[in-house]
Amino acid sequence: MPSTPPGAGTPTSASPTPTPPPLTAPVALEADALVELATAVWRLCNKVEAAEGTSAGVRRHLDAVVDALVESGVQTRSYDGTVFDPGLRMRVLAYQPMAGLERDEVVETVRPAVYLRGTPLALGEVIVGTPQEESDEAGGVAQ
Fold this sequence. Notes:
Distance between the termini: 116 Å
CATH topology: Nucleotide Exchange Factor Grpe, Chain A, domain 2
Strand content: 25-35%
CATH class: Mainly Beta
Structural class: alpha+beta
Strand order of the largest sheet: 1-4-5
Shape: elongated
Number of domains: 1
CATH superfamily: Head domain of nucleotide exchange factor GrpE
CATH architecture: Roll
Radius of gyration: 28 Å
């Protein structure tokens, strides 16, 4: 009687190879490094947004980086145009009198606030515009 090698002859239903779970091991990362990374990406986003002629590919890759940070729980916040309230959590670098303002308002975010899963890692740094005092015709300051 001839012998058949194992696996030869009648087909057997082979079970599919199980897919290993994705690697999700926690990684230690210094908060300062994460703040610098998020700030650099925020600045790059602002430059790409302001630039004309940026290729769609560059924008797509930048969007992918931003999405990866957000999916990891990292978010940045700009304050441009926000009415200034001294109780807001931000670091004011300067107050700048500006014509046309009716109230104190953030006119420039120098560095964004950075959050990790809602916990602040870094305060935003801003310049606050203040209403410019009007002077009367005699050269004095209007009251």
